[in-house]
Amino acid sequence: GSSCEKCDFETDLCKALHDLNLQPGWIRRNGLSGTRPPYSDHSGNDSAYFLSLSSEMRSSSATLRTNVFLPTDKEHICQITFHYWISQTGGTLMVGLQKHSEDTITYIWQDLGELQNQWKANTITINSTEKYEV
């Protein structure tokens, strides 16, 4: 609907995500500035920005957290569509949900990286009766 926000990292980190300084390991770059793939974004634009794990992070994990989303209701389920790339060195991309009454993160989706070195898209749907972060 009209409440959709597009997040493309062109000018900054998108309103949906917390400040990058809190999350070591992520860099904002484009295809032109990389010494390794991807050399363009999902639409083939080599000057468009995306988030990438820095090369020092090969063996560990890094997290991106959204800001707080409000509870969903019957008319407003939350759908988040994202484009992602898993390189030849492999890795797992997971999406977790943390409700504000819970200390733990519940993982609701993952890609183990069987299809590597290509852009893929995924949409997750979230129903939550309380505030949450993704």
Automatic annotation (TrEMBL):
Renumbered to this chain, the signal peptide range is none
One Pfam family linked to the record: MAM
Q: Where is the MAM domain?
A: 5-134
The superkingdom listed in its UniProt entry is: Eukaryota
Q: Name one GO cellular component term.
A: membrane
What InterPro entries does the database record attribute to this sequence? ConA-like_dom_sf, MAM_dom, MAM_domain-containing
Q: Which Gene3D superfamilies match?
A: 2.60.120.200
Name of the featured protein: MAM domain-containing protein
Protein source organism: Charadrius vociferus (Killdeer)
